[in-house]
Amino acid sequence: MFNRLRNWLENRRIKKMGFTAEQWESAIADWPVMHRYQGAERDALRNMCFRFLVRKTFASGSGFQFTDAMCLKVATMACVPVLHLGLDWYDRWKTVILYEDAFVPNRPYRTEDGVEHSRGPGLSGEAWYRGPVILSWQDICETGAHTRHGKANNVVIHELAHKLDMLRDGANGAPPMHPDMRPGEWHDIFTAAWDRLQNDWRHHRTLPLDDYALTSPAEFFAVCSEAFFEAPENMREEMPEVYRLLCQFYRQQPLPLAISGL
Ligand SMILES: [Zn+2]
């Protein structure tokens, strides 16, 4: 009953918002990942994007004058990870804050040399526990399969992966598992992949992911999620087991299954 009422109210608000399918297509036209979503899946993504826009509030950081097209694009990128999970996975927070460029959080920051600075370095994005998602538009424009040191980059997917991770025991690299998944397997495979990456990094080998993934298990999951959606070929090739588990978690196959026996 509650869901029906919520849908009815949302449909009214979507109608009032007045976005068209053409506006949406134009806003996401330069994001290559969208080629993957066609037919009914594309329609579902557009519908979810409009629903995201009525459920969330977009706020300006430092007076940035963002446009409707920017909101449509951010909302679509945000919806891709939950397309087959459901928008309810984002129910515990409300606000997206959009800055024009990297933003500097107003809090103390300690560098590796142990020095405490009154403010930290510029950030491309941040996700607060039960708080807002903060994003830099400039960094969103640098999305792509090879845009961060030659590695996959999508700050929206990165921060939203943190939000999913936070749904169970805080951000620790282990989001809630579906009934058909085994938490032990997730732990073992992600730990082994992390150890391998750490080892490659120590031996100055080329890494399949941006080395920011080595910051913590939470960052590892977020960076893997970026690679899963932005550069799935590379991820399946370099980290097949992690790719398989992310397919299970996100309930999506970014790459068609290999056809054998033909
Ligand atoms: Zn992060």
TrEMBL record:
Gene Ontology terms for molecular function? aminopeptidase activity; metallopeptidase activity
According to its UniProt record, what is one Pfam family this protein matches? Peptidase_M90
Q: Which superkingdom, per the lineage?
A: Bacteria
A single GO CC term, please? cytosol
| Coiled coil residues, start to end | none
Q: What is this protein called?
A: Zinc-dependent peptidase
PANTHER family recorded:
MTFA PEPTIDASE, PROTEIN MTFA
